[in-house]
């Protein structure tokens, strides 16, 4: 069986950039958050359960998941968010398990924002954390998404603090400089995993 490496980082840390570099090195990456976006449209049973929880408006007139509506609905409602997670997380888990079965490399990577929060690191051989200073992450996300300072801050405040993630991670990639450095650090870390 291949070794599964969990890859995580807070908003704007650069985990997706790292994941791309890993793919360039020839190792497969499962993008949990991306897959979650597809799964809510693919699986009819899931769709029905989400509508039951959040209302029919969770899907637009074309039958597509309305991300903005759902995000607004669950953002400040802990119970609804939990209910949604109880529907989506097991679906991602089984989708990931199917993906693992068809991989041929000895090292495979699972990118997920919630690696430590969901204790998914326990199911990985090693965990890799991408991290950067808060102000740098803030600027990257504001530039990338056109979000305001307050909007990004609200998201950051809901995530596990970097210092806690640093304690839990097996390997840490600091991403405070440029993408060239990031690529170099990434290669060093993945080829050092044994
Ligand atoms: P999110 O959780 O919000 O999806 P992420 O951790 O996946 O974020 P990326 O999307 O990889 O982060 O990076 C956030 C933004 O910052 C992107 O626009 C990316 O191109 C840019 N970026 C990442 N690292 C660097 C860097 N070292 N130098 C310059 N720009 C960077």
TrEMBL record:
ATP binds at residues 12-17. GO terms for molecular function: ATP binding; dephospho-CoA kinase activity. Its main location: cytoplasm. Pathway: Cofactor biosynthesis; coenzyme A biosynthesis; CoA from (R)-pantothenate: step 5/5. It is an enzyme of class 2 (transferase). It comes from the Bacteria. Its EC number is 2.7.1.24. It holds the Pfam family CoaE. The keyword Cytoplasm applies. The keyword Transferase applies. It is found in: Cytoplasm. It catalyses: 3'-dephospho-CoA + ATP = ADP + CoA + H(+). Keywords: ATP-binding, Coenzyme A biosynthesis, Cytoplasm, Kinase, Nucleotide-binding, Transferase. One of its GO terms (biological process) is coenzyme A biosynthetic process. GO terms for cellular component: cytoplasm. Catalyzes the phosphorylation of the 3'-hydroxyl group of dephosphocoenzyme A to form coenzyme A. Belongs to the CoaE family. This is Dephospho-CoA kinase. It comes from Chryseobacterium endophyticum.
């Amino acid at each position: 069986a291949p070794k599964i490496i969990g890859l995580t980082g807070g908003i704007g840390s650069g985990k997706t950039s790292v994941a791309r570099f890993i793919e360039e090195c020839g190792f497969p990456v499962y993008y949990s958050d991306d897959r979650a976006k597809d799964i809510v449209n693919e699986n009819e049973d899931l769709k029905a359960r989400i509508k039951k929880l959040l209302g029919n408006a969770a899907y637009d007139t074309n039958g597509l998941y309305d991300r903005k509506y759902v995000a607004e609905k669950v953002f400040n409602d802990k119970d609804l968010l939990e209910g949604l997670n109880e529907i989506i997380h097991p679906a991602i888990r089984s989708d990931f398990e199917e993906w693992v079965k068809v991989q041929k490399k000895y090292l495979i990577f699972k990118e997920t924002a919630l690696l430590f929060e969901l204790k998914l690191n326990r199911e990985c051989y090693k965990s890799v954390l991408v991290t950067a200073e808060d102000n740098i992450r803030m600027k990257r996300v504001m530039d990338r998404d056109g979000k305001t300072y307050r909007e990004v801050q609200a998201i950051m405040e809901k995530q596990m603090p970097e210092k806690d993630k640093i304690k839990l991670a097996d390997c840490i990639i600091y991403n405070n400089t440029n993408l060239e450095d990031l690529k170099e650090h990434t290669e060093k870390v993945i080829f050092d995993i044994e």
